[in-house]
Amino acid sequence: MADVSREQIVAAIKVTLAIAETIKELGSVPSGELYALLCGKMSLNQYQIIIGNIERAGMITVKNNLITWIGD
C-alpha cells in the first residue's frame, strides 16, 4: 500500500464532509444524480467508499439508490 500523506488524509476528510453536508442540505438525493455531479472529480469506487463511510457513520440511509439524511 502506498504511503498516504497527512495532506491527502485531510483532503479526503474535507471531501467526505462536503458530500455529507450536501446530502444534509438536500434531505435526500438519488445516488446517480449526486455521482453525476462528482464524476469528473472522483472515480465511482471513491464515491462508493465515501457514501459507504457516511452510511456506516449512521448519517444517511441508502435504499433503492436514494440517499436520505438521517443524522443530526
Q: How would you summarize this macromolecular structure in one to three sentences?
A:
The chain has 3 helices and 3 strands. With 72 residues, it is α+β, with helices and mostly antiparallel strands.
Q: In what order do the strands lie side by side in the largest sheet?
A: 1-3-2
User: SSE order, as H and E?
Assistant: HEHHEE
- CATH domain fold name: Arc Repressor Mutant, subunit A
Strand content: 15-25%
Strand-helix topology:
Layout: H1 6-26, E1 28-30, H2 31-38, H3 44-56, E2 60-63, E3 66-69
Antiparallel strand pairs: 1-3, 2-3
Q: What does this protein structure show overall?
A:
The protein is 58% helix and 15% strand. The relative contact order is 0.18. The protein has a three-stranded antiparallel sheet. The protein has a single domain, classed as Orthogonal Bundle (Arc Repressor Mutant, subunit A). The chain is globular, with a radius of gyration of 12 Å. The chain has 72 residues and is α+β, with helices and mostly antiparallel strands. The longest helix is centred in the N-terminal third of the chain and has 21 residues.
Summary keywords:
single chain, 72 residues, alpha+beta, Arc Repressor Mutant, subunit A, three-stranded antiparallel β-sheet, 58% helix
